[in-house]
Design goal:
With 602 residues, the protein is α/β, with parallel strands linked by helices. It contains 16 helices and 17 strands. Helix 10 links the parallel strand 8 and strand 9. Helix 5 crosses helix 12 and helix 6 runs parallel beside helix 7. The chain starts with 25 loop residues before the first helix and ends in a 5-residue tail after the last helix. 34% of the residues are buried.
Length: 602
Amino acid sequence: MTTPPATGNGAAPAGNGSLPAWLPDEQTLTRMAGEFFRALPGQPPVPDGTPDPGLPANGTPADLPPPAPRSRPSTPSGPPPTSAPVTHGAAAAGHGLPFVPEIPTLMNLASQPGVPAAAPTAAPTAMPTPDPGGFYFLSGVPGYTPAMPATPGFGHAATASIPEAAAPAPAGAHFYFVDPERASEVPELPLDPHPAFDVHAVRRDFPILSERVNGRPLIWLDNAATTQKPNAVIERLVEFYSRENSNIHRAAHELAARATDAYENARRTVAKFIGAGSAEEIVFVRGTTEAINLVAKSWGAQHIGQGDEIVISHLEHHANIVPWQMLAEQTGAVLKVIPVDESGQVLLDRYTALLSDRTKLVAVAHVSNALGTVVPISEIIEIGHRAGAKVLIDAAQSVPHMPIDVAALGADFLAFSGHKIFGPTGIGVLYGREEVLADMPPWEGGGNMIADVTLERSIYQPPPGRFEAGTGNIADAVGLAAALDYVDRIGLSQIASYEHALLEYATAGLRDIPGLRLVGTAADKASVVSFVLEGYEPVEVGTALNEEGIAVRAGHHCAQPILRRYGLEATVRPSLAFYNTHDEVDTLVAAVRRLSTRTGRR
C-alpha cells in the first residue's frame, strides 16, 4: 500500500489516485491528537491560551509520523514484514505516552468542506454533560454517557442500537442460585467418586503382568479360572504376616486383637460390597464350592425330603450340580433342569413350568463360566419365590464383573470366591439371609463354632460363627477385603463398561476367522468368549497360544453338561478382566487367525 506525499497545504495530489477532499490534513490530525490526550482522565487542565506542552512553540510536532494513507487499503502483495514496526518520535515532555495520532471520525469531520452531514441521532435526555472533545469513546470523562455515532459510508449500514437493559425482576422471581434463602433448592447432582478408567494405570498395579512367557509379554486371558492380584492385596498379606499374625478371638494379647479386628473388618467389607444387611449374614468359607456344599449339607438336609424338587439350569458349573445330586440321592429328592436356547440363554417360560408346590430350592449361576451368558437372576428369584422356593445364586463369575446388591435382589443365598475377584485363593463367601441362617444347623463341628461344651451337650454360636469351625483362613480373608477395596476404588460400573466394550471387540475379531465357531452367543454376556477351531483340538490351540505368551483355558471348564448340549467335549475359553487391553485382544485374534490358515490342518 502506497502513501501519497503530502503537499504544502495538506491537499492530496490530483490525478486518478486522488482521495476525497474531506480527509484531514496533518495539522488537523495534530490538533485532534492534542485534544485526545488532554481529555484523558487524570490529565492536568491546560489554561486557556497555553500552548500544548506536547508541541513546539510553532505548534508543529517535532517528529510527526507519516501522514495517514490517502488511498483505500489495497490487498497485501507479499508476506508480512518480519521486523518490528518503527516508532516515530519520543514521548513528549510532560506526557507519559508517545504521540499517537487518532483516526478521524464522522463526528469531527462533518465540518470539513465537502463532507455530507451524518444522519441525525436522537439527543440524550440526560442532564447536560461535559464535552469529551469530540470523541464518543471517552467514557472516562465524569458524567459523560457515550453515544456511538453512525459509521460513514462505504456501503455499510449504521451501527445497530444497543437495547435498553431489562427491568429488574419483580420480588419473588429470584433465581434459586442467587437467593441465599432458597439455597436448599439447589439440585444435588450425583458425583462419581471413581477416577476415569485408565487400563494402563490399572496394569501397573499388577506386577505379574510384566512377566514374560516364551520370550513374549504375558497376556493373561484365563480370568474365569482365576484372576491376578494387585499390589494392594500382596502388600496387605505381607503386612498381616509381618505385624498382625495370630489366631483370632479368645486371647488377651495385642496381636490377637489386631488379627481379630482385621478378620471382622474383612467381614464388614464383604457385607458392604454386596449390599448385605449386616456382617452377620457373611460366612467365610474356602470358596464357592464349599459355600454350596454348606447349604446342601445344612439347609438342604433339614428342609429337603423324599419327592421334593431342586431346580438348577443347564449352564451350571459342576460345583452347583454335584452337591444337589448327592443330596437328591440321600433324600430321594428330584433334580430338575432349566433348558437353554441355541444362544445359551435360559428359557424362562420352561423354568416357570418346572416349578410346583414341591419345589424347595432353585440354584442357578448368575454368569455361565463356560459360555459367559448372563442369566436374568432377578426374574429367576422372583419366579422361584412365587413358588415358595428358596433361591441360591452362584455369583463366582459375576461378582468380578458387575455390581451385586443382594438385598435388592432378594436372594436367600449367594456364593462367590475371592480368587475370582483379584483376591487370594482359599477364601470365599456365603451370604445368607439372617433369618435363613439362624434356622440352619452347623455343618461341621469343632472349635470356634461353639458357645459352650460339656460332655453331655454343646451349645452353638449364632451365625456366622456357627458355620466357621476351627481356625479359618484369617490372612486371606483380610486379603479378600483388600481386593474388594481395590475394586471399589476403581468402580464396578466403570469396570463393567470397559469389559463390555472389550468383550464385543474380541467377539467381533474372532467371529471373522475362517473355521472358528463361537459357542454361546447370548445377547447378554460377560467376560467369556468360548470357541472351537476347525482342524484343531482345543488343547492344541491352547498350547499354540501359550507359545506366544497367551494364557487361555482349554477343556470342559467343569461344565460338561452345557458343552455336551452343543455336541462338544471341550472349547478354547479366553476370558477377560479389566486389566486386559485391545492390543492383547488383537494379538490373540492374529494368533488364532494364523492357526486357521496354517497348512496341514486335519
